[in-house]
Amino acid sequence: MKQILLITDGCSNVGLSPVVAAAHASSEGIAVNVVGVLDHGDVGELGATEIDEIARAGGGLSRLVNMRQLSQTVQMMTRKTVVQTIQLAVQKELKQVLGNGAIEALPPDKRGEVVRVIDELGETSGLQVALLIDASASMKPKLAAVEEAIRDLMLSLQARQGKSEIAVFHFPGTKHGDDCVMDLNWTTHLNGVQAIFPKLQMGGTTPTGPAIMHVIDFYRRGDYGRQSRDETDGMMSGYVV
After folding, report:
1. What is the DSSP letter of 65?
2. For 85, what's the count of Cα atoms within 13 Å in the CB-facing half-sphere?
3. Which of 41, 160, 189, 194 has the smallest number of Cβ neighbours within 10 A?
4. How far apart are CA 233 and CA 231, in angstroms?
5. Which stretch of DSSP H or E encloses residue 72?
6. 65 strand-pairing partners
7. Rounded distance, CA 119 to CA 79, Å?
8. Do 208 and 12 touch, CB atoms closer than 8 A?
9. Contact 134, 208 (CB under 8 A)
10. What are the φ and ψ backbone dihedral angles of 37, each rounded to 5 degrees?
11. How many CA atoms lie within 13 A of 25 on its CB side?
12. Domain 2-232 -> CATH class
């Protein structure tokens, strides 16, 4: 299962709409979660709307949080999206088997079995999370909170039974650019994540849409999604009759 987890505090202002980019991600089986990080101010109505629309288009979740809540939120959203992805696959198969995609339509004993298997698959399925960090100037005071959140997310993923990997990107790559930089390729090790932050140069515009497209291209360039949504489909066939 593939995810993009976008951590930002404001509106995009360069390039392709991030909502359009998130829709591209969803069409390729990549869920897009968005965390809007607040400090003493507010992201504003426009920023909050954009954050919600990006997540909706990307088939993911969105939250506005203060810095103290960030670590807990990224863990919750990552795990919840895993379960959501599996539930969608199960609903699809139920519709094929029973003509009704609702788990609630099953008899109580079958319903309990389906829920148990969903929970089990949520812990054992392979997971890849591409962290996409807004490194524009306004995020600089929040960098320590982002670092802590990523470290805690790594620890949480390491506790899963299934293989979990993280890649890290930031944008913009330069103060006047609209590019996105990969800081860390797929890893399961904490030490790589900790080495990123002292080197980050904060500042510049907020090219969120192009950055999302860059991460989509990163997924495309290799066999990173070995367990696709189609492969998830069919897992329930032994449980639903």
Report:
1. E
2. 31
3. 41
4. 5
5. helix 70-98
6. 37
7. 11
8. yes
9. yes
10. -95, 120
11. 34
12. alpha beta
CB atoms within 10 A of CB 68: 9
Mapping DSSP to helix (H, G, I), strand (E, B) and coil, where does residue 197 land?
helix
Q: How many CB atoms lie within 10 A of CB 161?
A: 10
Predicted pLDDT of residue 23: 97
Rounded distance, CA 66 to CA 156, Å?
20
Cα–Cα distance, 81 to 10 (Å, whole number): 23
The distance between the two most distant Cα atoms of the chain, rounded to a whole number of Å, is: 59
DSSP annotation string for 130-190: EEEEE-SGGGGGGHHHHHHHHHHHHHHHHTSSS-EEEEEEEE-SSTT----EEEEEEE--H
Name, in order, each residue with C-beta under 8 angstroms of 230's C-beta and a sequence gap of 6 or more: none
Q: What is the pLDDT along the chain (241 residues), one digit of tens a residue?
A: 889 999 988 778 888 999 999 999 999 999 999 998 876 556 677 778 899 999 999 999 888 888 888 888 888 888 888 877 777 776 666 666 566 656 676 777 777 777 777 777 777 878 888 999 998 887 888 888 888 888 888 888 888 888 888 899 999 877 666 778 888 898 887 677 777 877 777 787 888 999 999 999 999 887 444 433 333 444 444 433 3
Q: How far apart are CA 30 and CA 81, in angstroms?
A: 11
Closest listed residue to residue 212, CA positions, set 18, 14, 74, 11: 18
Q: Which residues of 185-212 are buried (b: 16+ CB within 10 A; e: fewer)?
A: eeeeeeebbeebbeebebebbbbbbbbb
